[in-house]
Amino acid sequence: MLESIRGFVTRRILSRAEASAEPGTSGPPGVQLAACALLLELARADGVMSPSELAHIEGAIQRHFGLDEATARELISLAEEERRQSIDHFQFTRLIASEYDLGQKMVLAEVMWGVILADGELATHEAWLVRKLAHLLELEPGYLSEARKSAATRGHGHGEVLDE
Fold this sequence. Notes:
The chain is mostly helical and 164 residues long. Helix content is 72%, strand content 0%.
């Protein structure tokens, strides 16, 4: 069942990516799934995913991947299933690290900070997890700090431009 859902979402994402053919869209569906799974993991790092965190993720992946609302929600649902089944973050970070360039990783880091700042609270585990993920994504601490400042400056990341 999960494979048929995965195939359906992948086909929809691919068809939308081909139709939009915008130069700023980010990577193949596997990378999109991995990035979304990491964002969901961060949103749940403090034990609860707030509505503001979910709204931030939905908006970010719609803009970043050029998806409509329904497809973005399907991607989130599939990513949540993948996140629950994973034993660690490495499968997601390895794929992103190999596919994303430094600029894309910086945008993702800003979105990650935006997710954990969206509810107005910064739990210790959230800060630790974003640093761990940045390390696995091969992002230097200075870049992560810059991404945090940018997310905070932009009102917890709600106004970021992700197709840079």
